[in-house]
Write a structure and sequence with these properties.
The protein is α/β, with parallel strands linked by helices. It is 40% helix and 23% strand. It has helices spanning 18-40, 45-68, 76-94, 96-101, 178-181, 187-195, and strands spanning 3-4, 74-75, 102-108, 125-132, 147-156, 166-175, 196-197, 202-208. The longest helix has 24 residues, at 45-68. The radius of gyration is 18 Å and the shape is globular.
Length: 211
């Protein structure tokens, strides 16, 4: 087995480290999903959050262990991103007020050049944190409850050496789309929108941060 260092957020990496954000996101979602499973098995929220986080960490660590026997090697940066995602998943699942105001989401818009594995299609992906005003007392009973603010990261052009490489951060304002489904008891749609951001549903302002 071997480890490797892939660097942090520069144009020399395969995907501009969008894959690192993807690792954190996957670990976060996996932590929440497993915590919810444990809670359905009659664990209290605190215990479910602990076991969900530990189970998520075990799964992603096992995957990195598999990589350590490949030509790529286990990435230290990938594992750190996994740990950060699990930690945020644990904190947000256990702490309801935090979960009410902050989501970690993935925005994906397939294109004609989408690769076979959409989970690693970073050319068409964006990752973001959404601050939901609906979670604050001052906004809960007025029009502000429909507003949220986003900050995120995405890369373009790093998979093709002939393309212009771009690493971008962005901020935007959007609508809290969960409000469209929750009053009608659409539980699956409400859950999906906690983790997935519909494309073209915000007004972004992006900034390129290339080296």
């Amino acid at each position: 087995p071997k480890t490797t260092s892939e660097g942090w957020f520069n144009n020399d990496t395969k995907s501009g480290d969008a894959d690192k954000v993807g690792h954190a996101y996957t670990s976060y979602v996996l932590s929440h999903g497993l915590s919810n499973l444990y809670q359905s098995w009659c664990f209290i929220t605190k215990g479910a959050a602990v076991y969900g986080a530990l189970s998520s960490l075990a799964i992603v660590a096992y995957m990195e262990l598999g990589d350590s026997f490949s030509d790529f090697g286990a990435s230290r940066e990938d594992m750190l991103a996994n740990i950060l995602g699990v930690a945020f998943g644990y904190l947000s699942y256990r702490n309801k007020p935090l979960s009410n105001i902050l989501d970690f989401r993935w925005e994906y818009k397939p294109s004609s050049e989408t690769i076979d594995d959409f989970t690693t299609d970073y050319e068409n992906s964006k990752y973001l944190l959404a601050l939901k005003l609906n979670g604050f007392d001052f906004a809960r009973n007025n029009f502000l409850k429909h507003i949220e603010f986003h900050a995120g990261y995405y890369t373009r052009g790093l998979s093709d050496p002939d393309d212009t490489k771009a690493r971008n951060t962005f901020v935007c304002i959007g609508l809290y789309l969960t409000d469209l489904f929750r009053p009608h008891s659409y539980k699956k749609q409400t859950t999906l929108l906690k983790y997935y951001q519909l494309p073209a549903s915000t007004m972004p302002r992006a900034k390129t941060v290339n080296n």
